[in-house]
């Protein structure tokens, strides 16, 4: 398998920026490059820390606004977690997430069964659905193994 050059990886990014009339700045390219290499669904703060090494004068606001712009044009997905910061997912392929409510870790997983879940008629009638993503909330194996960890569970009420 031939290794892609950095410019090859940036080609789709550059084309999308042109499509949406966004300036192609070195800062935007660096944020995109670092984001696509991330494996952990980074926060804006984590991205700021990484990009600031290359661009010491870049502001947190610039990084955050750039990530949100990337989400608006479809380069990344925003993952919202209860009580946690926004996380950014550069993997735009169809997949699902497991979110550990103890440590905050988010893990991608793939499932044909979840991919093939039907959309209720009342949703299809009222909305146009473009993507489906299932998010499972629970406790990861690492957290369950921690000494003194007690799973108190979450009260869930069934609505009928």
Pick out the low-confidence regions.
1-6, 156-160
Largest sheet: 3 strands, mixed
Q: Would you report the number of β strands? A: 5
Count of individual domains: 2
End-to-end distance, in Å?
53 Å
As a percent range, the share of helical residues equals 40-55%
Shape field? flat
Helix and strand run: HHHHEEEEHHEH
The CATH homologous superfamily of the largest domain is named Winged helix-like DNA-binding domain superfamily/Winged helix DNA-binding domain
> What class do helices, strands and sheet pairing give?
alpha+beta
| Residue-averaged pLDDT | 86
Strand line-up across the major sheet = 4-3-5
Q: Provide the β-strand percentage band.
A: 5-15%
Briefly note the CATH topology name of the largest domain.
Arc Repressor Mutant, subunit A
Radius of gyration: 19 Å
What is the CATH C level class of the largest domain, in words?
Mainly Alpha
Indicate the CATH architecture of the largest domain. Orthogonal Bundle
How many helical elements?
7
Report on the structure:
The chain has 2 domains: 82 residues, Arc Repressor Mutant, subunit A, CATH 1.10.10.10; 57 residues, Dna Ligase, domain 1 (2-Layer Sandwich). Helix content is 41%, strand content 12%. Strands 4-3-5 form a 3-stranded mixed beta sheet, with no helix packed on it. Strands 1-2 form a two-stranded antiparallel sheet. Helix 2 crosses helix 3. The longest helix has 14 residues. It is flat. The protein starts with 5 loop residues before the first helix and ends in a 15-residue tail after the last helix.
């Amino acid at each position: 398998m031939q290794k892609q050059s950095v410019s090859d990886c940036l080609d789709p990014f550059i084309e999308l920026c042109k499509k949406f009339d966004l300036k192609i700045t070195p800062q935007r390219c660096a944020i995109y490059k670092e984001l696509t290499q991330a494996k952990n669904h980074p926060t804006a703060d984590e991205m700021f820390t990484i990009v600031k090494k290359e661009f010491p004068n870049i502001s947190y606001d610039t990084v955050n606004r750039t990530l949100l712009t990337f989400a608006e044009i479809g380069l990344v997905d925003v993952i919202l977690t209860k009580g946690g910061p926004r996380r950014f997912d550069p993997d735009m392929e169809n997949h699902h997430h497991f979110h550990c409510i103890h440590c905050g870790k988010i893990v991608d997983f793939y499932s044909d069964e979840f991919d093939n879940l039907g959309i209720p008629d009342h949703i299809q009638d009222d909305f146009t659905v473009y993507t489906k993503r299932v998010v499972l909330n629970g406790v990861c194996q690492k957290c369950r193994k921690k000494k003194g960890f007690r799973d108190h569970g979450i009260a869930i009420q069934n609505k009928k």
